[in-house]
């Protein structure tokens, strides 16, 4: 599409189909309209709800401060679309440019955006997963159901997996005064995303707030009573936890199965795309009409040696959506790359945690400001002599400075003096990440090498 | 030789319109002369330095550069420990957190909102008291007393003591705004006495509040027992003095600059009269267009810091010229136009980073109430002189008097 007026025609009367009607899908649609796309827009989402926001689900919703039904995303712009909600896409015909739906319909497109995100990885044993009282947390319905159960005052909640979501759930339970056990296979909470040094602070935080935290253990089985309600969990150290609610928080699976056999470069690690959010096909050739954005996408990032990054970050979904929408409407020379430095936040146990860059790529950490002991600090991650990421506990206002150091590939360890540098900040420590070859549910950023193809991947469940 | 930008900023002759000087200054985003301070005047560079942990606000540990004309005189006289405005983390964070506990979210989300009724009453009372609509001074009759009364109510100063509080605040304010004709020794002494008396008064009140706490902020601060421990009486005195001065000297100018700007832009005044909700974007645009704090002096580098190719050596004083950053054409379209309809309005008027204005929610509400009520009640208001006479102070810049005439004052 160049120079022959076809782009103009597309902008006027083309057909855009967006699969996945959530954060990335909605923001892309809004951007298309904002940039003057006047053609038809179809939004396909398998959830029956209008686009809503997920971060509150593990925070205010579980505290009972906001209803799960009231998390609709604010609309930044009228999108004038045909909404096909409650209908899943089941297949993609790339040659015929059509999306197949569960109800048998086929929707033709000129440009397609795939924003199908991820889903919660369920408890691996199906019979146990079906017990009453066993939950996952990804959707609004999950959030409503779990919030209802917590409000009913269970005797104990067991959270399986202490990544960000699991830790936030545990924090919400404690704030509600509920007894909580957290079982984490790694050495500490958040270890996959932030490493052991910071993980130890997260563990301290949990214990101070009265969480019964068990690290280095796996939940091996869930037991139900005669009525089919969960009553206990067995742990790999031989112990048993009696509990009436289990929240399985073992990370996410990318929603790409529906693309199997389509020829698109999609697999368990997501959909490979170029820096402009254009998807690759399985031959490693970039397409011109299929785009991907949000949690389901994996994009090469110049700051991280052009390795493919998968990010389960709110901000990333928004910025990729904008890039994808812009590029759909642009001549090749006007396209823009997705260059944003990854950023993530979490609030748990009254602490605001924020990270920029890719901490999990770091091998060393320097506590540049504040102190681990006081649980208020900025930690800077180093990789091969440069700064690659930073994390803050209740010190978020400094992060823009460290983000700039990441963007300018500043040397690690930083040599300069800062305010609030303590004795512990004189020397870097081993960041203490677990062996990357063992998949964990922890990191919400995953580096997945240089290859757009995803055929060799085999998925090893954490349990 | 043209005088240096530094002296032009300080030169009283430029007080009414410093913006051409800033425009000139922005041609050298990091300006430095002799052994004076490094003057930073462009938006992105200022913002970066406000978030830069290599820049200290601590008044004690850092040696001052010899020729910073805005360096604080020794505060020995007051004998109070530095307030959190002049501290670095972790002390800054601890005191700010403790002060915030009874003031803002998450612990006190309703404090500022709960003051709406009171703010309205104060504004109404002051406008009712204006008297002769043919000629009045908005500064003396409205802008000056207003924030002092607000701080009194916030802290919980008993009504019968408010008059004394105003007298002290006026004396301290005068010392912050040196009148070249007044005898400096006299003036210094007046301010010194006022500080001492205010300190003694507050110390007594704190004792009283420890015994009989009310639901005011001073009581909450005096009796706090949180994870950060409690404030010593000295810390509490510094904090109360900070709230008084930071809230007074700024809000005065915001309200006065606001009215001045609206009188110069009658279209906006008209719109505000018709719809008081316009006060929100008007106040935001004012904080950009005529910021009451023109520049932040008293920052010092702890390490060599490179900004736009200039290396600012460790130990240098900085001036961050917020008012210039707010008019940076690389950041704002048509920066010299007053335009309340601007959507992109991330101004520097309330600072940024860890020292960003603590009182921002209150300041905004005060200015919104004041301007919308003035717009509604003053009938056909006119400026009697333009430009008005300004205060000497180049940092906390604003008119000393704003003489206005109007046809009448509505109920
Ligand atoms: C509990 C929770 C807390 C979080 N907290 C934070 C936080 O604090 N900070 C942060 O940065 N991020 C957080 N996140 C992550 C953030 O919400 C995600 O990054 C964001 O939702 C990604 O948006 P997305 O549109 O790419 O994907 P999603 O929001 O996952 O949306 C994908 C949509 O596509 C639908 N879909 C899937 N397959 C199909 C199909 N075949 N056909 C049709 N529709 C389909 C899905 O049902 C879903 O509605 C949190 C997530 C959760 C679940
Ligand atoms: C229009 C009104 C106001 C303006 C323009 C203003 C502006 C500012 C600015 C620019 C700063 C940053 C100073 C720096 O970076 O060193 C600041 C800090 C501060 N302001 Fe305000 N302010 C206003 C009103 C108030 C009010 C009403 C209060 C009190 C209730 C207040 C309390 C403070 C305090 C305590 C600080 C120090 C914060 C810290 O160091 O952490 N201000 N203000």
From TrEMBL, chain A:
Keywords: FAD, Flavoprotein, Oxidoreductase. Residues 344-416 form the Reductase C-terminal domain. InterPro entries: FAD-oxidoreductase/Apoptosis, FAD/NAD-bd_sf, FAD/NAD-binding_dom, FAD/NAD-linked_Rdtase_dimer_sf, Reductase_C. This is Ferredoxin reductase. Its cofactor is FAD. Residues 15-321 form the FAD/NAD(P)-binding domain. Residues 427-453 are annotated as: Disordered. PANTHER family: APOPTOSIS-INDUCING FACTOR 1, RIESKE DOMAIN-CONTAINING PROTEIN-RELATED. Pfam families: Pyr_redox_2, Reductase_C. GO terms for cellular component: cytoplasm. GO terms for molecular function: oxidoreductase activity, acting on NAD(P)H.
From TrEMBL, chain B:
One of its GO terms (molecular function) is monooxygenase activity. Residues 56-87 are annotated as: Disordered. This is Cytochrome. Pfam families: p450. SUPFAM superfamilies: Cytochrome P450. Signal peptide: none annotated. CDD domains: CYP164-like.
